[in-house]
Amino acid sequence: MKNVLILGAGQSSPFLISYMLVQADKYDWQVTVADYNYDAACSKVCSHPRGEAVQFDVNDENLRNSLIQKADIVLNFLAPPFQYLIALDCLTNSKSVISASYENSRVGLLNNDAKRKGILILNEMGLDPGIDHMSAMSLIQRIRDKGGYISSFVSYGSGVPAPEVKSNPLNYCITWNPRNVVMAGDVGALYMEQEQMKLLPYEQLFHRTWNVEIEDVGTFEAYPNRDSLVYQELFKL
Predict the structure, then answer these.
(1) How many CA atoms, within 13 angstroms, populate the side-chain half-sphere of residue 232?
(2) What's the CATH number of domain 2-122, 3.90.550.10, 3.10.580.10, 3.40.50.720, 3.40.50.360?
(3) Class assignment of domain 148-234?
(4) What pLDDT score does 148 carry?
(5) Predicted confidence (pLDDT) per residue in 185-224, tens digit
(6) What one-character DSSP code corresponds to residue 125?
(7) In what order do the strands lie in the sheet containing 29-35?
(8) pLDDT of 159 strictly over 90
(9) What is the pTM of this model?
(10) Which of 22, 51, 81, 137 has its Cβ near the most Cβ atoms within 10 Å?
(11) 109/103 Cα distance (integer angstroms)
(12) How many CB atoms within 10 Å of residue 20?
């Protein structure tokens, strides 16, 4: 039996937890869901025979390490400020950890030590970032395999507003942390355009938008997102 530890039972985690529990019998998993809000963890586990809810304080070092030591793999859905702490604990305990959060520089520096221990510290494995990287690399590789040359690359990712939702001015039916929608641009943007590096601070970011037409969905406003240059080397562009 493989023990899967999921840290965090907030609004970003229900579908992951549900999927892991549905697949638990097939793959012989025991799924532990740990959250500061014990009731939230219990509600996600739903008394599943392959699931267990645990009350979890991320500041309790002994508890963190005890849970990680019992796990075969850790799925970290805690807030981004805790990514390094959990990654470091997993490295210390030689346990692989997967996260949907953007990889920060401190976590990236653990990569060589993780390789030496034969474990994964794998970040950006959600929708955005995550699936967008995989679809991008798949497309880029297919173009190159056919002898093509990539002169420009632009990728879009978004939640889709629901016009029928009238509870908020953005018309979002939010299934993740609502604060993240508002704070999505707080770090500004760094990207390349016409072979020129562009740096936009937060206060200018939403003044540099353009329209994108999505077939069968509608017209959306797009804006530059975070540091895109880190992917230039990864995608070999």
Answers:
(1) 12
(2) 3.40.50.720
(3) alpha beta
(4) 96
(5) 888 999 999 889 999 999 998 888 999 998 888 888 899 9
(6) -
(7) 51-55, 29-35, 2-7, 73-76, 96-99, 121-122
(8) no
(9) 0.83
(10) 51
(11) 10
(12) 20
